[in-house]
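Student: Send me a single protein entry containing the residue sequence and its fold in token form, directly below this note:

Tutor:
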Amino acid sequence: MNILEDTMLVYRIAKNYYIDGYGQKEIAKMTGISRPQISRLIKRGQEMGIVKIEVSLPETIEVKELEMELASCLGAGSSIIIPSDRTADIDNFFPLAAGRVEECLQGHHYIGIGWGHSLYEISRNLSFQENHTELVFYPLIGCSGSINPYLQVGSIVDRFAERYRAKARYLNLPVYLRESNISRDEVGKWQAFQKRWERLDAAVIGIGTLGMKDPIYIDEVSKDPYLIKWKKDIEGDVLAYMMLKDGSILHIPGYQHIACPIDTLKKIPRVIAVAKGVNKAEAIYRAAANKYFSTLITDENTAKEIIRLSSK
């Protein structure tokens, strides 16, 4: 176990004990770690400075003001900014963002999950929850290729369900299917998920970059000449929907896009977007303008860049 994984384990155990109110015996049962080891990890949390009366990082007035300014710029329902710990040797964004995702999902029952690096890392940093048999997690998109773990949405959904001790449903279709080769079985699976997407009451998505300098990361269309031609006009993507600079979506001829329809996504009561990186600022701004999410979780630097862009 490396330093980052060890620190995050201590953080999650401390949060389970001090914030979530679980006893050491319950935590041991949830995590599969022995009770004596749980006790030692809790003690280490104090020694490492993770536990200071409450297991959280204080939100500064500056960050709260930045959240309000960002929400105003985006027209989003809310913005959550993860404070940067400039003294830390490790990036604390995803462990803390995972905790905020958990807060946002409270009270929801049918939850759609997207793909990408951010969603992959969020799923790895979720806390182990008590049984939530009423919860069901659904993929919002098909998978792509067989190498990139960030695009295997079934695995990400599975990890959400595992941490929540909830149910999961799987789509098992590629994100792009050639229209000339679609089978009746594939059509049936896709149509069944159309109905499931319509009943979602929450979703968690990432926002990708697919601009001029970025490679086309989706195997199924990576060499498509039409997409390559338009690549310079793409600002970013949400669920592999390519967002053009004029606000429209690029549709690739000859392919069926297997993902929750944009109009359906916009009707979901709460859509949480998790995205960070100044290189994603334009894509986040475009997605907000298109009303693809209601809550944004990001970091300070990205927030400041989005505000700078909006003031142009």
In short: The radius of gyration is 20 Å.
